[in-house]
Amino acid sequence: MEKRLGIIALIVKDGASVPRLNALLSEHSRLVTARLGLPMRGRGISLISLVVEGDTDELGTLTGRLGRLPGLMVKSVLTAFKEDGDGRDPEGFGEGDIH
Question: Which residues, 6+ apart, have CB-to-CB distance to 68 below 8 Å?
Fold first, then answer.
């Protein structure tokens, strides 16, 4: 299956969900290439952004499981960038052209 690049944005409204959130991210760690957390203490929430790479089934499983956690809001965006099995983009995206 083709790999896709994407971003998952999380808003954590309930700190009680954090242990389960971290466990899920550890289970799916092979999909996460970068993670940034921003506590917004004045608002009582935390923002987490994840850069992910995987096939649509894997990414859908992760976002679905995250979305079922109480006190967590999840949004995801998948790019049009796709890789075939050898790590190259079959459409030539990123090979000298700006898109």
Answer: none
Q: How far is CA 31 from CA 34, 68, 99, in A?
A: 9, 19, 24
- Which top CATH class is 3-77? alpha beta
pLDDT digits (tens, 9 = 90+) for 36-55: 999 999 999 999 999 999 99
With H, G, I as helix, E, B as strand and everything else as coil, classify residue 33.
strand
Question: Domain coordinates of the chain in residue numbers?
Answer: 3-77
pLDDT in tens, 63-72: 999 999 999 9
pTM for the full predicted model = 0.80
